[in-house]
């Protein structure tokens, strides 16, 4: 990803893609003092752009730093980066981190907070699975207790267990892994929230130990408007046996049907297809 043409917005300026570098003693690289957003631009408009910028600022605060740009400035930075790269349909990665400064220890209050925005074309996050139904492994790693890590921050540190879980899943021929939380309840995939269907109702885990995704909230609203009951509750993994359909939601994942989790199978049913199609229409409208 580093060797390509284009521009990246870095600390207030558009720089050449290949020149958007940081020093190896960057605090974030050593201590995960970094937060990020994943957004998608459809037909020239970023879906729920402002919510993503607000979440980025909030994630920074949750890991104890203040991004030195306002939400309006972040919005302008994203627009400028899309324009500079001539993209109207793209994935947008806005991120902020503690840079190099006076401190090389764990404390970093004297190190500057830096920010960048990169945009690129990114098709289906799960490839073919988008239509056929993704196959998920069940992760060994669990989402931490909110008293152990700031679960509602989209913070780099929370992705260490996600990367390890996804590597294990891919080695088994799966597209992703379903993770449990610290209590053993079903939580989410490594970068997407999860939904189940049973007897015409939808069930989805309560987001009390993982990110309450913007796509998740959008899909819950879509279902509610259709008159479909959404049960947000704690779900035990042994309940998977009784669920008929399953899908994942996320900015990158959009609405991706799930065909299998461990030994449990799901059909790519009518409601799953309907929600996937309606989401696609909504983001482009
Ligand atoms: N959970 C995790 C761990 C994620 O990384 C993401 C992607 N940001 C999501 C859920 C879905 O969030 P959103 O719908 O806001 O993209």
UniProtKB/TrEMBL annotation:
Its cofactor is pyridoxal 5'-phosphate. GO terms for biological process: isoleucine biosynthetic process; L-leucine biosynthetic process; L-valine biosynthetic process. It is an enzyme of class 2 (transferase). It holds the Pfam family Aminotran_4. Pathway: Amino-acid biosynthesis; L-leucine biosynthesis; L-leucine from 3-methyl-2-oxobutanoate: step 4/4; Amino-acid biosynthesis; L-valine biosynthesis; L-valine from pyruvate: step 4/4; Amino-acid biosynthesis; L-isoleucine biosynthesis; L-isoleucine from 2-oxobutanoate: step 4/4. Its EC number is 2.6.1.42. InterPro entries: Aminotrans_IV (IPR001544), Aminotrans_IV_CS (IPR018300), Aminotransferase-like (IPR036038), B_amino_transI (IPR005785), BCAT-like_C (IPR043132), BCAT-like_N (IPR043131), Class-IV_PLP-Dep_Aminotrnsfr (IPR050571). It comes from the Bacteria. GO terms for molecular function: L-isoleucine-2-oxoglutarate transaminase activity; L-leucine-2-oxoglutarate transaminase activity; L-valine-2-oxoglutarate transaminase activity. It catalyses: L-isoleucine + 2-oxoglutarate = (S)-3-methyl-2-oxopentanoate + L-glutamate; L-leucine + 2-oxoglutarate = 4-methyl-2-oxopentanoate + L-glutamate; L-valine + 2-oxoglutarate = 3-methyl-2-oxobutanoate + L-glutamate. Keywords: Amino-acid biosynthesis, Aminotransferase, Branched-chain amino acid biosynthesis, Pyridoxal phosphate, Transferase. The keyword Ribonucleoprotein does not apply. Belongs to the class-IV pyridoxal-phosphate-dependent aminotransferase family. Acts on leucine, isoleucine and valine. NCBIfam families: ilvE_I, PRK06606.1, PRK07544.1. This is Branched-chain-amino-acid aminotransferase.
């Amino acid at each position: 990803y580093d060797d390509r043409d284009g521009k990246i917005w870095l600390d207030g300026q558009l720089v050449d893609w290949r020149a958007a570098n940081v020093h190896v003693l960057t605090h974030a690289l050593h201590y995960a003092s970094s937060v990020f957003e994943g957004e998608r631009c459809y037909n020239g408009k970023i879906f729920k752009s402002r919510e993503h910028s607000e979440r980025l600022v909030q994630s920074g605060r949750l890991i104890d730093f203040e991004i030195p740009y306002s939400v309006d400035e972040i919005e302008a930075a994203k627009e400028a980066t899309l324009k500079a790269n001539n993209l109207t349909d793209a994935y947008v990665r806005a991120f902020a981190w503690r840079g190099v400064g006076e401190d090389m220890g764990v404390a970093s209050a004297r190190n500057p907070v830096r920010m960048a925005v990169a945009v690129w074309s990114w098709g289906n996050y799960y490839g073919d699975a988008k239509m056929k139904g993704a196959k998920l492994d069940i992760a060994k790693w669990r989402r931490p207790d909110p008293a152990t890590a700031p679960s509602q921050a989209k913070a780099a540190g929370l992705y260490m267990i996600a990367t390890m879980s996804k590597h294990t899943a891919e080695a088994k021929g799966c597209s992703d892994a379903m993770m449990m939380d610290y209590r053993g309840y079903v939580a989410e995939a490594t970068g997407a929230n999860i939904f189940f269907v049973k007897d015409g109702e939808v069930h989805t885990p309560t987001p009390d130990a993982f990110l309450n995704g913007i796509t998740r909230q959008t899909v819950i609203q879509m279902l509610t408007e259709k008159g479909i009951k959404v049960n947000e509750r704690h779900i035990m993994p042994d309940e998977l046996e009784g669920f008929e359909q399953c899908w994942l939601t996320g900015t990158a994942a959009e609405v991706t049907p799930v065909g299998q989790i461990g030994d449990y199978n799901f059909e790519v049913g009518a409601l799953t297809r309907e929600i996937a199609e309606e989401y696609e229409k909504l983001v482009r409208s």
